[in-house]
Amino acid sequence: MNVLGIGGSVHDFSCCLVVDGTVVVAIEEERLSRVKYHPLGRISTDQFRLRGIQYCLDAAGLTLDDVDQVVGNDLIFPAVLRGLPDVRLINHHLAHAASSFYLSPHSEAAVLVMDGFGSMTDGRAETTSHFLAGDDGIRLLHWDTGAVVRKDERLPFSWANFDFVEDSAGVLYSHVTDLIGFGEYEEGKTMGLAAYGKADDAAELGRIVAVDDEGRIRFGRAERDALDAVHHSMMAVARTDADVFAVRAAFAAAVQSLLEEVVLRQARSIHERTGADVLCVSGGVFMNCPANYRLVTEGPFREVFLHGACGDNGTSIGAALHGYHAGSGLHRTPMTRPVTYTGRTYGEDDHVRALEEHRDRLVFRRSPDIAAETAEVLAAGGVVGWFQGGSEFGARALGNRSILADPRDPGIKDRLNLVVKGREAFRPFAPSVLFERQGEYYDITVESTHMCLNAMSRDDGPALPGVTHVDGSARIQSVRADVNPLYHRLISRFAELTGVGVVLNTSFNEREPIVETPEQAVDCFLRTDIDRLALGPFMVSKA
């Protein structure tokens, strides 16, 4: 059975093709359109037709006529689905739940979904959902909802007249992100900034926004206005750039602390409701790495399954897998390996074609061992663009579309932020660490394949300033030899050269979506301060 899944809402659109229960290919639309998050407000009407559909079909050697089902979720902007035959729409939070449970290695689990908001009914939208999943499918046990607030209550609902959804922890976090000066969909910056602040300096946030024992919050217009007023008053007395930064960081720390508490209380609530010892999670809230770490280490579950596409992008995978299991009537086979690298693979002809287009600006040759040679460049202080295999699905680069560097270099963070990536100086970089050695460097006993967890650096470990945040934490990626053997071999060789089984890993991009094609990788390499490009088997330098 061939099932095409369509994901997204009004942003983060994606496509996934499932064949006989296996995710064969999946792609986020932003990788193809080159518009970050691919949101309605930044794309033209001719971009409603998703390129990812044809991308998936071509990668699998199929046509639309070969597809047995097309499944999406009911929050997808309708124009995106025009022209597709008989699209079946499922509940938005169910699509999130399916993306986590069906990608997990578990046969039974509680499933917790938390995001900004999901499906809408009678003027309310789901904000948190509790499910129980097993061989008989995924069953909704409980949900929390918030009122849908319109900009002009005299007019009917439309996306143009949409303001926000009340009583949503995800919406609160997004509002604070906007309040402290970041853009739409930039909650990750708030997460990074929080480590620089003191939550007590913005303690009014915790007094304004009430949280009950089950993790439900009260955040409506009155609370929003009160929060805005507190922020305005604090900014009014900020005299220097340092004062302004401190206020922004305090608000980030306060909302981060509150979100972590909400997640823990919701986890205890679903644990009491289900009695399960395994939890699967999804929804944009679970892109928050510090909250995930506290959930794993302080929560009531024996095991928590996290995957790398918790946001609306992942609903294409959930929709497709739900469609397959509902349509086939077959019991699922739990996943034994992470579903991580879902993009199509580019061949050597594609690599050479991209390089030949810029022959006058490049020097390239086939490397006898691209992993070992890259490790040697890193150990000598070089920065390498690493382009291998199929692209990762989700927000994190996980060793196929990465910029790599030596984590021991105390100046590498500023170089990458300011010269290569063009982003704020406070933002941290992540370590990719050999899974079998991660305990030498970090206080963590669980696997973090998809870079969804923060862990604290060990006091007795080596100094790794390039990947250590201001609070001593790191958003780690555990690298297993059976999941990405080439990347594991690279880090192993770096360990032989330096004694450190860790490399700095950041996404291969510069103020744009992660590169998808060899051409995009070459373009990014040429316009940034990257020293070398490892493009498939080719080692590339600038002429």
Written description of the protein model:
This protein has helices at 29-33, 51-60, 92-101, 169-179, 187-193, 204-208, 221-236, 241-274, 289-298, 315-328, 348-356, 370-379, 412-421, 438-441, 485-498, 518-527, and strands at 2-7, 14-19, 22-28, 69-73, 87-90, 109-114, 120-121, 124-134, 137-150, 162-165, 210-211, 217-218, 278-282, 303-305, 362-366, 384-387, 401-405, 430-434, 453-456, 473-479, 502-507, 532-535, 538-542. It has a 9-stranded mixed sheet, sandwiched between helices. It contains 16 helices and 23 strands. It has 543 residues and is α+β, with helices and mostly antiparallel strands. Helices cover 33% and strands 22% of the residues. The protein folds into 3 domains: 1-103 and 307-337, 2-Layer Sandwich (Nucleotidyltransferase, domain 5); 107-306, Nucleotidyltransferase, domain 5, CATH 3.30.420.40; 348-542, DHBP synthase (Alpha-Beta Complex), CATH 3.90.870.20. Helix 3 packs across helix 10, helix 4 packs antiparallel against helix 8 (241-274) and helix 12 runs parallel beside helix 15 (485-498).
